[in-house]
Design brief:
- The protein has 184 residues and is an alpha+beta fold.
- It has an 8-stranded mixed β-sheet with strand order 1-2-3-4-5-6-8-7, sandwiched between helices.
- The chain has a domain of 126 residues: Aminopeptidase, CATH 3.40.630.
- The chain has 5 helices and 8 strands, in the order ββαααβββαβαββ.
- It holds the Pfam family Acetyltransf_1.
- This is N-acetyltransferase domain-containing protein.
Length: 184
């Protein structure tokens, strides 16, 4: 894939998508400080914890995580990650997460990031992509991935709790991948 990639969002806002670099830590820290705590709550790790972020950057260096950033006016406005397992029964399945600043949601930035993550997964020979999304809170994301042929693989009733302790269903969305876009 060629980077940096320029994209035009709704309302003619321009963004640049590129891979995460080791020097991006301050930009990424500033980005996550702007993400509401109620959104960060559903991530699999505490992005405000420096030790956790150090481990995450190490995983990027080792190649078990592929991460891309979307920048607008030198600030990170979106981030996408593809999590890979190099060994074992699920090594053919990648998981992903996309995080976008609230003011950049509904502008197609998530779509641009998702397309790149799908391509990265195909480039690595993965057979499936998986996303775990929270029903009732991430319904827009569920609708968006369905447009890219993700289907509901399962739903765990009352599996997660929000920041206020309310329970929500966890929806497992899966997409089967092909070797080339022309195979679809």
């Amino acid at each position: 894939m060629r980077y940096p990639k320029e994209c035009v969002l709704k309302e003619c806002v321009e963004a640049v998508i590129r891979p995460l670099e080791t020097g991006d830590r301050p930009l990424l820290d500033a980005f996550y400080q702007r993400i509401p705590e109620s959104d960060r709550w559903f991530m699999n790790y505490d992005v405000m914890d420096c030790a956790i972020m150090d481990k995450w950057f190490d995983a990027v260096k080792k190649g078990s995580v592929c991460s891309i950033l979307a920048l607008c006016e030198a600030q990170v406005v979106g981030q996408g990650s593809l999590y890979l397992r190099g060994f074992g029964a699920t090594s053919h399945v990648g998981r992903f997460r996309i995080v976008v600043l609230p003011e950049f949601r509904q502008k197609r930035l998530g779509t641009w990031l998702l397309l790149d993550l799908i391509q990265l997964a195909m480039d690595r020979g993965l057979e499936m992509l998986r996303a775990d999304l929270v029903a009732g809170l991430e319904d827009n994301a569920i609708d968006a991935v369905q447009k890219f042929d993700f289907f509901k693989y399962g739903q765990l009733k009352d599996y997660v709790r929000d920041i206020n302790g309310n329970r929500h269903d966890l929806v497992i969305m899966v997409k089967r991948l092909h070797k080339e876009w022309s195979d679809y």
